Amino acid sequence: MNSKAQIVATIGPASKDKKILRKMMEHQMDVARLNFSWGTHDEHIIFIKNIREVAKKLGRRIPIIQDLSGPRVQRKVGHGIKKGVQEIITKKDLSDLRFGIEQKIDYVAMSFVGDANDVLKLRKEMKKLGRIIPIIAKIERKIALNNINKIIKAADAVMVARGDLGNEIPLEEIPFTEVQIINECKKLNKPVIVATEMMLSMKENKRPTRAEVTDVAFAIIAGADAVMLSEETAIGKHPIDTIEMMEKILIASEKRRFHNLKYNSL
Predict the structure, then answer these.
(1) Torsions phi, psi for 197 (to 5 deg)
(2) CA distance 12 to 123
(3) Which of 108, 144, 188, 219 has CB atoms 3.0–4.6 Å from 194's, for a disulfide?
(4) Would you place residue 82 in the very low, low, confident or very high pLDDT band (cuts 50, 70, 90)?
(5) 110: CATH
(6) In angstroms, how far apart are the furthest CA atoms of the chain?
(7) Is residue 264 part of a domain?
């Protein structure tokens, strides 16, 4: 039995090989994410090629998300939006977007969305390039919470990007903000992904912490349509084990609360 909720896995140096990708897909990786804050177009072409070849052999459809970096800067602790920025679509984003359209990417995740106009602007840029791709609005700024309903309506899906969001609001508010966003997405029938540090200890270890297991289960109980792995599968030591463990948690969570509910799919 497979989970109804989907597992989004970030593909990187640790997971780019076909043998590893095959095992990740066999353990129910559902969607691949490419993080354009890192790597070159040449590297991403290899990732895309391998993902598609393996998925075809397995007879599976694995959508690919292109995650645009936006005006991101590195800080002493993590990263965040560049201060004083008004326009969140950068020249790099436009170059990456052109590449994504050429590669027939399935979804584009937009970083640092502030309001619905940001989503509409990105869609206009896509139109100029000849193809409109579904947009996932990443909620990672305090201002986005003030405009959440309009953002959800404008976007095709939403990501609760808890990393940068945790730099904008008190950490103790993150669980409740996560539930609020999920609830709003459910009202408007838009898919919602919960992301960031879900099973981060598995970047080094073969087993997650009890707190991480609870975190993943909490997201599913709250109604998330998908959960996302970042460093765990991109550069971690145990990408296959991480996928396998996450799928077990999803199945256990759904058995208890959501076996009669429908999930939106990416």
Answers:
(1) 55, 35
(2) 27
(3) 219
(4) confident
(5) 3.20.20.60
(6) 49
(7) no
